[in-house]
Amino acid sequence: MKRSATAVWNGTGKDGNGSVSTQSTVLNKTQYSYKSRFENGTGTNPEELIAAAHAGCFSMKLAFVLNAGGFTPDEIITECVITLGDGAITSSHLVLKAKVPGIDKAKFDAAAADAKANCPISKLLNTDITLDATLL
After folding, report:
1. In what order do the strands lie in the sheet with 128-135?
2. Lower Cβ count inside 10 Å, N or C end of the chain?
3. Which tens digit of pLDDT belongs to each residue from 21-40?
4. Can you give the pTM of this predicted structure?
5. CATH number for position 86
6. Same domain, yes or no, for 94 and 128?
Protein backbone atom coordinates (compact mmCIF):
# COMPACT_ATOMS: atom_id res chain seq x y z
CA MET A 1 0.00 0.00 0.00
CA LYS A 2 1.21 3.47 -0.84
CA ARG A 3 -0.35 6.85 -0.09
CA SER A 4 0.74 10.22 -1.41
CA ALA A 5 0.48 13.94 -0.87
CA THR A 6 1.84 16.92 -2.77
CA ALA A 7 3.10 20.25 -1.49
CA VAL A 8 3.53 23.32 -3.68
CA TRP A 9 5.49 26.31 -2.38
CA ASN A 10 5.89 29.71 -4.03
CA GLY A 11 8.30 32.41 -2.91
CA THR A 12 10.62 32.76 0.05
CA GLY A 13 10.31 30.82 3.28
CA LYS A 14 8.98 33.78 5.22
CA ASP A 15 7.00 35.70 2.61
CA GLY A 16 5.91 32.87 0.35
CA ASN A 17 2.93 30.59 0.57
CA GLY A 18 2.00 27.10 -0.36
CA SER A 19 -0.64 24.43 -0.49
CA VAL A 20 -0.87 20.76 0.31
CA SER A 21 -3.09 18.18 -1.36
CA THR A 22 -3.64 14.54 -0.52
CA GLN A 23 -4.30 11.59 -2.78
CA SER A 24 -7.81 11.25 -1.29
CA THR A 25 -8.43 14.98 -1.89
CA VAL A 26 -9.50 15.41 1.75
CA LEU A 27 -6.88 18.14 1.61
CA ASN A 28 -7.11 19.87 -1.75
CA LYS A 29 -4.81 22.84 -2.22
CA THR A 30 -5.06 23.55 1.52
CA GLN A 31 -3.04 26.64 2.24
CA TYR A 32 -0.05 26.91 4.52
CA SER A 33 2.46 29.66 5.12
CA TYR A 34 5.04 30.99 7.53
CA LYS A 35 2.22 32.63 9.48
CA SER A 36 0.18 29.41 9.75
CA ARG A 37 3.27 27.54 10.86
CA PHE A 38 5.00 29.93 13.24
CA GLU A 39 2.28 32.43 14.17
CA ASN A 40 -1.52 32.16 14.24
CA GLY A 41 -2.23 32.61 10.55
CA THR A 42 -4.93 30.91 8.53
CA GLY A 43 -4.12 27.50 7.08
CA THR A 44 -2.50 24.30 8.16
CA ASN A 45 1.14 23.40 8.79
CA PRO A 46 3.30 20.28 8.79
CA GLU A 47 3.25 19.90 12.57
CA GLU A 48 -0.56 20.01 12.71
CA LEU A 49 -0.71 17.35 10.00
CA ILE A 50 1.76 15.16 11.90
CA ALA A 51 -0.34 15.60 15.06
CA ALA A 52 -3.46 14.49 13.18
CA ALA A 53 -1.62 11.52 11.69
CA HIS A 54 -0.22 10.42 15.06
CA ALA A 55 -3.55 10.79 16.89
CA GLY A 56 -5.40 8.89 14.18
CA CYS A 57 -2.83 6.13 13.81
CA PHE A 58 -2.50 5.62 17.58
CA SER A 59 -6.29 5.48 18.05
CA MET A 60 -6.73 2.87 15.34
CA LYS A 61 -3.79 0.78 16.60
CA LEU A 62 -5.24 0.89 20.11
CA ALA A 63 -8.58 -0.38 18.76
CA PHE A 64 -6.76 -3.32 17.12
CA VAL A 65 -4.78 -4.08 20.30
CA LEU A 66 -7.90 -3.94 22.47
CA ASN A 67 -9.83 -6.17 20.07
CA ALA A 68 -7.00 -8.72 20.05
CA GLY A 69 -7.35 -8.79 23.85
CA GLY A 70 -11.09 -9.43 23.65
CA PHE A 71 -12.27 -5.86 24.24
CA THR A 72 -14.30 -3.55 22.01
CA PRO A 73 -13.92 0.14 22.80
CA ASP A 74 -17.03 2.31 22.82
CA GLU A 75 -14.92 5.40 22.14
CA ILE A 76 -11.26 6.34 21.82
CA ILE A 77 -10.41 10.05 21.87
CA THR A 78 -6.79 10.98 21.30
CA GLU A 79 -5.30 14.46 21.19
CA CYS A 80 -1.74 14.83 19.96
CA VAL A 81 0.46 17.84 20.59
CA ILE A 82 3.56 18.14 18.41
CA THR A 83 6.29 20.46 19.70
CA LEU A 84 8.66 22.15 17.26
CA GLY A 85 11.78 23.78 18.64
CA ASP A 86 15.20 24.69 17.29
CA GLY A 87 14.30 23.44 13.82
CA ALA A 88 13.22 19.96 14.90
CA ILE A 89 10.17 18.19 16.26
CA THR A 90 11.16 17.68 19.87
CA SER A 91 8.16 15.73 21.13
CA SER A 92 4.80 14.17 20.42
CA HIS A 93 2.46 14.08 23.40
CA LEU A 94 -0.62 11.85 23.22
CA VAL A 95 -3.57 12.44 25.54
CA LEU A 96 -5.94 9.48 25.48
CA LYS A 97 -9.43 9.17 26.93
CA ALA A 98 -11.26 5.94 26.21
CA LYS A 99 -14.40 4.05 27.16
CA VAL A 100 -13.70 0.32 27.07
CA PRO A 101 -16.34 -1.88 28.71
CA GLY A 102 -15.04 -4.67 30.93
CA ILE A 103 -11.34 -3.78 30.90
CA ASP A 104 -9.32 -3.12 34.04
CA LYS A 105 -6.82 -0.27 34.34
CA ALA A 106 -3.74 -2.52 34.09
CA LYS A 107 -4.88 -4.14 30.83
CA PHE A 108 -5.92 -0.76 29.45
CA ASP A 109 -2.54 0.79 30.27
CA ALA A 110 -0.73 -2.17 28.69
CA ALA A 111 -2.81 -1.87 25.52
CA ALA A 112 -2.18 1.88 25.34
CA ALA A 113 1.56 1.37 25.80
CA ASP A 114 1.55 -1.27 23.04
CA ALA A 115 -0.28 1.09 20.67
CA LYS A 116 2.10 3.95 21.51
CA ALA A 117 5.15 1.81 20.76
CA ASN A 118 3.80 0.06 17.70
CA CYS A 119 1.57 2.36 15.68
CA PRO A 120 3.29 3.09 12.36
CA ILE A 121 3.51 6.85 13.00
CA SER A 122 5.16 6.29 16.40
CA LYS A 123 7.68 4.06 14.65
CA LEU A 124 8.29 6.77 12.05
CA LEU A 125 8.85 9.63 14.48
CA ASN A 126 12.37 10.13 15.79
CA THR A 127 11.37 12.09 18.87
CA ASP A 128 10.25 11.75 22.48
CA ILE A 129 6.72 10.29 22.58
CA THR A 130 4.75 10.60 25.80
CA LEU A 131 1.28 9.38 26.72
CA ASP A 132 -1.33 10.32 29.31
CA ALA A 133 -4.03 7.62 29.28
CA THR A 134 -7.37 7.88 31.05
CA LEU A 135 -9.91 5.06 31.19
CA LEU A 136 -13.39 6.59 31.40
Report:
1. 75-85, 88-99, 128-135
2. N
3. 999 999 999 999 999 999 99
4. 0.95
5. 3.30.300.20
6. yes
